[in-house]
Write a structure and sequence with these properties.
The chain is of the alpha/beta class. 41% of the residues lie in helices and 15% in strands. It is built from 10 helices and 8 strands. It is globular, with a radius of gyration of 17 Å. The structure holds 2-phosphoglycolic acid.
Amino acid sequence: MKQSVKLIVGNWKMHGLSADLGEAATLRQALEEESASCRVVLCPPATLLDRMRTVVEGGAVELGGQDCHEKPAGAFTGSTSAAMLADAGASLVILGHSERRAAFGENDAAVAAKVEAAIAAGLEPIVCVGETLAQREAGDAVAVVSAQVENSLADSLAERPFAVAYEPVWAIGTGLTPTLEQIAEVHAALRAALVRRLGQAAARIPILYGGSVKPENAAEILAASEVGGALVGGASLKAEDFLKIIRAA
Ligand code: PGA
C-alpha cells in the first residue's frame, strides 16, 4: 500500500552537543521556506531534547527519543523513561534499534515492554527490526524480521499511531544498501506480518527503510513499494544532507 505522507526520521545516535542545535534551527527555517511534503522528525540524544524543543517549537520538525526504559519511573540509574522524553519535548521514540539489541541485549520481549511504556506516555513508537548479514546469507531475512516484528509489538498498538523501521544490520553505517527488490520483499513481508498481528488497522502503518540512506539514494528507496519513509543516521546530522533526503520524499 502506498503511503501518502512519508515519515523521515533522523537518528542522531550518540552525536550532538549544544553547538549542533544550529542544525535543527537550519532545518526548521528551511521547512518554513519550502514546506515539506513529508513528516520530519529529529531524534537527538536525550540531553538535547528540551533545548531542541525551544528551537523547533511552532515549526514543522517533530522530536523523538532514541530509546526509553520500560518503567515510568524508579530506581534505574542512568535510564530515561518515556514520560521523561515526552516531558522534554518528544512525541515519538525509536525502539529496538539493532544497536540496542546487539549492545544492550534487548530482545523482542524487552522491546514490546518498551512499546507499552511509550504508548502509556503518549509517544508514537518507531519499532526497528532487521537481519544480520549471516541471517541474510542463510536465506532467513524474511523469517527473522517477520518474527521480530510480531514479537516486538504490543496488542494496544492496534488502536495507536506507530511506525516500523526495516534496518538490515549490515546496511547500518556501512554505505551498503539492499537492492530495491530486497527492500520491497522485506517490506511486503512486514506488511503481512503487521496485518496478521494487529489486523486491518495495521494496513496503513508506515514501514520505514533505514541503513545508509543518503541524498544520492533516497529518492529511489523512498519510491520502492511499501516504503513509507526513512530512518536516517549519519546523513541526518547535517541539515543540508537531511534536507536533500526530505526533498526526495
Ligand atoms: P545510517 O544509520 O543511516 O548511518 O546507516 C541508520 C540507523 O541506524 O538508524
